[in-house]
Amino acid sequence: MAAQSTYTPIATYNAAGNSATFTFTNIPQNYTDLVIVWSALSTVNNSSQMSFTYTTNGGQRTLAAGGSGSGSSYSTTNSNYIYLANIPTNLSTTIPYSGIIYCNNYSNTNTYKTFLCKAGQDLNGSGGLMLAVASSFTTSGITSVGFSTNNGSNYFATASTFTLYGITAA
Amino acid sequence: MANTLTKIATQTANGSVNSITFSSIPATYTDLKLMISARSTYATGSVDYMSGWFNGDRNTLYSDTIVTGSGSSTSSQRSSTTTAFDVCSYPNANNTSNVYGSVEIYIPNYAGSNYKQGIIDGVMENNATYSEQRVVTILYRSTNAINSITIYAGSGNYTSSSEFTLYGIKNA
After folding, report:
1. How many domains does chain A have?
2. For residue A66, what is the nearest residue in chain B, using CA coordinates?
3. DSSP class of residue A84?
């Protein structure tokens, strides 16, 4: 059997340093799973954090475990928003915040959608990390996902990259 | 169709080495992913501990933050300004035969000019007698591209079936 390429880049967002939010839109429905990888920097060193901005009108539930280097925690959230990739500290201008989100079977219109996220930012003496799972109680295929800083005046710096991959099972 | 996930190299331990190094890593990918299945020959306690470094650099440019779960508790710890980064615990010779630990190390933008931030997750499970999961975020405070990765076995050697595969991932 000839080897097939099953891990395909769908889109990459290279920040231009002038926006606090962006969205991958028009995600094709012909893959099996989605993977999102990011390495994010901020234009300003202050209280800007980052959020994953997938939303729907249905209920969402997120379970997250986190660590600060001195203590661990977990939380559950029921909301119209999914709380993945919420950085446990602030975005930095020099040290990237990195992470990965997996969404399996994202285009199946008969199942609710689940997400798995692992993300972290060590700052050599501070920082933190999180491991989170989330469910979206909607059967619609996922057609767009996005990220934003929670301080509209802090933009993603030019070295920030976000890439959306599609994985095909066959 | 773009060939995005590419195997760069695989190394299988021979039972007598205490480190594995991938060198001459090309800078042509976007991200690196290192997959590990390993067991240690160390025969004290329940685990051995992997650590690592990049580019042969043993200066104090590393730090990491860890969350550990054992099945009954969680904890978090941090190491700062160190000469290597923590990877994870993994089974040693006191575990049931053939029990190996699994580890993924993911390094986005490894060839960029910013500091390098990676994500590690590792698991081991010894038939309910001992289990551990670790998620680690690592920082390498260097603007140099990563061209080699060394994973150190800890107190023992890697057993002969321990396997390490390095992949490159392109975003275009």
Report:
1. 1
2. B67
3. -
Q: Where are the beta strands (DSSP E) in chain A?
A: 7-14, 21-24, 33-40, 50-52, 55-67, 72-81, 97-104, 113-122, 127-136, 145-149, 161-167
Beta carbons of A123 and B2 less than 8 Å apart: no
Nearest-Cα distance to chain B for A57, in Å, is 31
CB contact under 8 A, B30 and A72: no
DSSP lists the bridge partners of residue A81 as A55
- Residue type for position A92: S
Q: Is residue A123 part of a domain?
A: yes
- CA distances to A13, A32, B11, B58, B60 from B146, rounded to whole Å, are 23, 32, 18, 14, 16
Strand partners, A132: A64, A117
Note whether B75 contacts A72, CB cutoff 8 Å.
Answer: yes
Which among B66, B119, B172 is the nearest to A9, CB-wise? Answer: B172
Residue A43 resides in a domain:
yes
What gap in Å lies between CA B172 and CA B169, rounded to an integer?
Answer: 9
Taking phi first (over 0 means left), then psi (-120 to 50 degrees means alpha), and beta for anything else, what does residue B99 get? beta
Q: Where residue A66 sits, what CATH number does that domain have? A: 2.60.120
ipTM entry: 0.90
- Among B69, B76, B121, whose Cβ lies nearest the Cβ of A69? B76
The whole-model pTM stands at 0.94
Residues in chain A whose Cβ is within 8 Å of chain B: 4-9, 12, 37-39, 41, 65-72, 74, 94-100, 118-125, 127-129, 131, 159, 161, 163, 165
Residue type, position B120, single letter: I
CATH for the stretch B5-169: 2.60.120
B45-63 residue pLDDT tens: 999 999 999 999 999 999 9
Rounded Cα–Cα distance for residues B7 and B34 (Å): 10
Q: pLDDT for A10-28, tens place per residue?
A: 999 999 999 999 999 999 9
**pLDDT digit string (tens) for A36-94?**
999 999 998 877 888 888 766 667 888 888 888 888 888 888 887 788 888 777 889 99
